[in-house]
Amino acid sequence: LWVASQLPSIASQRLGFQLSVQLPAFDTRFPAWTVIISAMMQATRMTSHRLLPTLLRNYSQASSPAGYVLCGPPGGGKGTVAKRLEDNYGLDVLGTGNMIRQHIRDGTALGKQVEALVAGGGLIPDEDVMALVMETLQQRRDHHYVLDGVPRTLAQAEMLELSFPPKAVINIDVPDETIVERLKDRLFHPGSGRIYNLQFNPPQQEMTDDETGEPLVRRADDEPETVRARLKEYQRSTQPVVDYYSGKGRLHTFSGTETNIIYPQIQAFLDEQLPRVDQ
Asked: E strands along 79-131, which residues?
């Protein structure tokens, strides 16, 4: 509702056209502001790239918690690091995969839209991904958090910066061939996205998820040649994001071949910023 109330003045002052908005009666079931933005952009593609930054910038006056971004190559140990950050510092770990699955399960308007895209083999547009992220962050505005899996593109990073600029970006750096070897032993729980590794983090029972008892699977895209192709694509698509945060002085890279080598470096960095909850 707040966003809708801002549209006429923004349209007139920034975009040069008149816009009339009919506000609905207040209803606690009314969709969150991020869903309004996503729906609006679907209908006004020619102006959305100019309208969204202004909306987000105006809305960013609201207070936000300390947020971090966790990035690194597929198979680089982000999931393990994220779990330790949750346990050690009480950070809410927010992954786009879980956000998407939750919206689909809840049958939200955005969830239905994303489900249709995924079912058709299409890519989820940046603005829809960020609508999911922004709504989730708004709901957790009193909690410190770490984003896992977003932003993936420069456009997503710029949208995030306007409303919820991260305090720091934790970049995990692992050699490609180390990842190739590691993923040969990876197991995956389809229902939750939980990941196991036969060498570093095996399930308690063979091929069985620890929490649900459901079977684990091996992903076809964990084959060595497929992994190498994914790593190459990751470097291509993510380098602009890395450069973006490096330019802002918020990129912190931690290198190693194992999570047990990398994580103590991350701990030393975060201990200067956050209290531990496990002590």
From this structure: 92-95
C-alpha distances in angstroms, 88 versus 146, 255, 261, 262? 13, 20, 16, 15
Q: Is 118 or 164 the better-scoring residue by pLDDT?
A: 164
Residues with catalytic function: 78, 152, 186, 219, 230
**Helix/strand/coil percentages in the chain, nearest 5:** 50, 15, 35
Dihedral, 49, 52, 53, 59 alpha carbons, nearest 10: 180
Classified as helix, coil or strand, 81 is helix
With beta carbons less than 8 A apart as the criterion, state whether 177 and 231 touch: no
Tokens encoding 194: 């939980």
- Mean pLDDT, rounded, for 18-26: 51
* Lowest-confidence segment of 4-13, 145-154, 208-217 by average pLDDT: 4-13
Show the CA angle centred on residue 189, arms to residues 185 and 191, nearest 5°. 165
Exposed/middle/buried for residue 139 (C-beta within 10 Å: 0-12, 13-18, 19+): exposed
- The secondary element (H helix, E strand) that includes residue 8 is helix 2-10
Residue 165 CA to its chain's centroid (Å): 13
Tens-digit pLDDT profile for residues 70-92: 999 988 888 889 999 999 999 99
How long, in residues, is the chain? 279
